[in-house]
């Protein structure tokens, strides 16, 4: 019997408990514990979310705060929920959520992984996500991809991508684990983490499915965040993050799901491999799944045999495509380095030296003798005709320089040139 995956175990636990922490009412809290500025921003975002519904906007203008909070699914019949305190609560209201931890910690580190600065942010998360963004040093980078006359000027990170990643951390955090959300900034990347397993199991599942998740850890909180225009109601936020990075020609987000109760997302703020960048610029029709495979290749990450086959079938890894990634990178990623060497063969100098050594020791030698020496050493991916052509070209490059044919074209007899004799 197949063992349940960690993802399935997490989903089963949620269904078994049937408890949504975010929907629970905080008995000690009242509307006075909500931040007025956050409440005003919530109204603005609710209006933005419903801008195509004039009748809804007309109603919004008439609602008092209690009615609005009920309609926005932040309170239950006027009772303040954990979700309302988390998104709209005053800074001091975080104590009402204990033992849960409502905190985002921003940490700045240098290239030696030494901590340089930090700051903690609590409720209201609706406003403080922007404060976290303001702390991140989103520098402008100038890249000059080969084949272009002008540099490309981009910020290290797309603000929407950072915000989406943070909103996902808030929505999917397991607050019962009493952990905090972390944003670690280094010179090259941003690392964002939240506690709680990744319920879909694999990022590829989310990308391929492109539909709302079947289950949320905090469904009440997620629905409230949808109503406040913080996350996508269709569940396509993660896919859109990848698409945005693709349009910027930057590396894809890295999801590290190796720890059962932690999700880590890395956003890289630099172009890693200009060949990858040139590829995205040149081939705008590539699908996202293929781009994700190429992204793993440029990062030296493993891809399975099916992924490698897909890249080769699309002719994205052949050596004769100088503007694309090289086959060796795929071989390293798949772990099949020996097969790559057999497919690639050796450089022409190696083969020419073999021919000259053979002639020196056994002259005169025939074409058949040379074929016996070389054919088994040529790349395995070449056909018989291609191998024969390769040997012919090698002999042509040597003829009259290091060796010469003293026989006929039909019956060749290769010997050393006089200057090569020893």
Furnish the topology, listing elements before pairings.
Blueprint (H helix, E strand, L loop, with lengths): L5 H12 L18 H14 L4 H9 L2 H7 L3 E2 L2 E2 L1 H7 L15 E6 L5 E7 L3 H11 L4 E4 L8 E4 L3 H14 L8 E5 L3 E7 L7 H7 L9 H9 L9 H12 L5 E3 L5 E7 L5 H9 L5 H11 L6 H9 L13 H8 L2 H8 L3 H15 L4 H8 L9 H15 L4 E3 L8 E3 L6
Parallel strand pairs: 3-7
Antiparallel strand pairs: 1-2, 3-4, 5-6, 7-8, 8-10, 9-10, 11-12
Helix pairs in contact: 5-9, 6-7, 7-10, 14-15
Can you describe this structure in just a few lines?
This protein is α+β, with helices and mostly antiparallel strands and 422 residues long.
Q: Which key terms come to mind for this protein?
A:
422 residues; alpha+beta; Heat Shock Protein 90; Arc Repressor Mutant, subunit A; six-stranded mixed sheet; two-stranded antiparallel sheet; 18 helices
